[in-house]
Amino acid sequence: MFQKIPSIHVTELAELKGPIIVDVRENHEFQAGHIPRAKNIPLVKIASYEPQGKIYLICATGMRSKRAAKILLKKGYEVINVRGGMSQWQGAIKGGAK
Question: Residues in domain Rhodanese (predicted)?
Answer without folding.
Answer: 15-98
